[in-house]
């Protein structure tokens, strides 16, 4: 993990994800849509990288847009459109097939000349009966497939800078370690569906008399509303 991003291989395409622990949605930038805007070969300049359907299970922009297109609006005004697709994740020599993730087929950020990005959402889905989009949880799918033992993730931080760098572990046990504190995820009273840890700063004290101050990000969760349609 480097600067809040992590690389994963889907159907032979190396995708550079933004890791979001406040979102439950995982999506890839569909290359057919991106290159329809910027021309053939433009995906090589996209920071996140593009996803294309494999020859064994082909698709194109027209067939994807013929499916049900979901629309999501973030609190900052950004709107993304996506469809769901079964993909294969390659981890070492293993192939984890039939993972259902979203393919981005529209984003308002391109109107401002900003690149779209791939997102790895690690938060559980909101317990909201009024939610119109049923989003499959990436972690739950890995647990169900028997690929990870626990519905959990951890980030072993080695560097704080503009973003977090270190080692991300999916499905690991949350055992207590020396010089660490475990914070439980809570549902704040001020948010209907958010899962968050409310904090403005964290100070970590070692067993010795000296202490080390660490910066912490205060994440009040990604607030958004969702609606159906294209």
UniProtKB/TrEMBL annotation:
Domain of life the protein comes from: Eukaryota
Name the UniProt record assigns to this protein: Uncharacterized protein
Organism: Perkinsus olseni
